[in-house]
């Protein structure tokens, strides 16, 4: 087998090409071919401020470094795609051009995209599916620069370029905002932190990108909910990381016996309070309580960050819509659903539809005091 490999965008965006090289799955000093089409797509994602673009750009920089260290032979080949070809990317035009470049250079196509690989095989390419060679990463404790800003009393950390870092410290319902360092966060430091977060999210099987828009990304990195924003969405780059301090059971709360009896069945419950009051912590305790009653419990969340037991499946927006999620969730027939967060009229309508269908409902509602 020739040690000549062409990468598509999928193995750049998930970083698996680096893992394959590091584990010598591609042999000693393999020849790596990167099409200008791949570079153009990464550049485009970066220009519209998608975090995946910044991550892909960093992978390209590491490939160049490996080439300089004589660990690989890097080739940049092919022509850049036209504006029309880029516009037709969802239809597979760019993938077709990547396969064409791989065929012209007599290389093995490396991909993490099943459709791309299967079409490549049909067209006569030799294909290496990255996930078949990359061994699952053992679960390890997180090692992030971001964690240096946390201690056992930190609820959330707030980082913004050219400003000192701040943190909310205390406990739900009893916290204060505190400056945790005097030196402002530099561009280099905040970019390194953002890149490290995305890198760990993509490598960790218990983490995921929840939302990615132009100038904003919401990630769940294990128990940390992280929001990264950039211009044009925010006026500067900012990172907000929220970490639950406690995981409570219903018995940990001092609840009046009448209310405790009322909570035995979720016949339409709304948990309301201001941000940081402990609504989600209480709702997670309720979800685990109902699970212990041998009930089928699900959650419906815009961002899946409730700390519930693994038996409870957490659902989010389906094709960008909670209404679509609700249609599927009703077919699952849960006994109880925890709806976090109920905010707009459409959310209350979903809540009502579930309740009228006989599903026990707990809605989490942010109460904003004017």
Written account of the structure:
The chain has 13 helices and 17 strands. The N and C termini lie far apart (69 Å). It is globular. The chain has helices spanning 9-13, 16-22, 36-47, 51-68, 83-87, 93-104, 114-122, 130-133, 187-203, 257-262, 279-291, 322-332, 345-356; strands at 4-7, 31-35, 73-77, 108-111, 127-129, 154-160, 166-171, 174-179, 208-213, 216-221, 224-229, 238-242, 267-273, 297-301, 313-315, 336-342, 360-366. It has 3 domains: 4-133, Rossmann fold; 145-242, Beta-Lactamase, CATH 3.30.450; 250-366, Rossmann fold. Helices cover 35% and strands 25% of the residues. It is α/β, with parallel strands linked by helices and 370 residues long. The chain has a 7-stranded antiparallel β-sheet, covered by helices on one side. A 5-stranded parallel β-sheet has the order 3-2-1-4-5, with helices on both faces. α12 runs parallel beside α13 (345-356). The model has no long low-confidence stretch (mean pLDDT 89).
